[in-house]
Amino acid sequence: MNRIVVLNPKGGSGKTTIATNLASYFASQQQRPVLMDFDPQGSSLRWVRKRQAAQPPIHIIAAFEKDSRTTRSFQLRAPVGTTHVILDTPAAVEPHLLPQLTREARKIIVPVLPSDIDIHACSRCIRDLLLVAKVRREDNRIGVVANRIRRNTATYQSLIRFLQTLGIPIVATLRDSQNYLRAAELGVGVHEMKSYIVREDVEEWRPLIEWIETTAGSTCAQAESPPPSVAVP
């Protein structure tokens, strides 16, 4: 199975939007995704519960909940036949937890908004992934998503210049679109909406999907083992 971690310790960067839309895309492609919600706000959990029975199924695990009656690894187990596990991580993840969150991840997506505060937070996140989690650049496991972008603005140009200095690929640039708000309200992803409404948004996801499907470096574990037991707030 492919494990994908959506990570940025700063809140409001769009982690849940990216995680839910990834799950929606894989489900629409007849895959069997699992969405793990580690965020105590439970936004991904609420999104899945809004989905209709006729829509492609997405298995949700409320990873932020603790159950003293069972082990953590049992609680986080993915059903047999799962093709993708997508982790929607919480804000304020401490650096020492990053190795556990990312150890078996095939891809790590870091969303960032075009603002000075978010650029600084992204820089710290990338630094911690490289130095604390020991993720190597050459394994092609880390990718940045420039989120809620308005092109031809000074903040957008500043963000792109900064991202190019990191030596980490910009795997997608997603515009600031109301379609994501509508999708969240309906429990769907943009890939499940009417194509003539979301054509531009869907096209922007193409490079991200292609990057996810590229083969990672040889050191990237892809075992079918249970997810690591991560203690997050």
Q: What's the shape?
A: globular
What percentage of the residues does DSSP assign to strands (E)?
Answer: 15-25%
Report the mean per-residue pLDDT as an integer. Answer: 89
Structural class: alpha/beta
CATH hierarchy class name: Alpha Beta
Could you say what the CATH architecture is? Answer: 3-Layer(aba) Sandwich
How many E strands? Answer: 7
- Largest beta sheet: strand ordering: 3-2-4-1-5-6-7
H/E element string?
EHEHEHEHEHEHEHH
> How many helices does DSSP assign?
8
Total tally of structural domains: 1
Name of the CATH homologous superfamily: P-loop containing nucleotide triphosphate hydrolases
Instruction: Determine the fraction of residues in helical runs and give it as a percent range.
Output: 25-40%
| Measured distance between first and last alpha carbons | 26 Å
Radius of gyration (Å): 17 Å
* Uncertain residue segments: 217-233
The CATH topology name reads Rossmann fold
Largest beta-sheet characterization: 7 strands, parallel
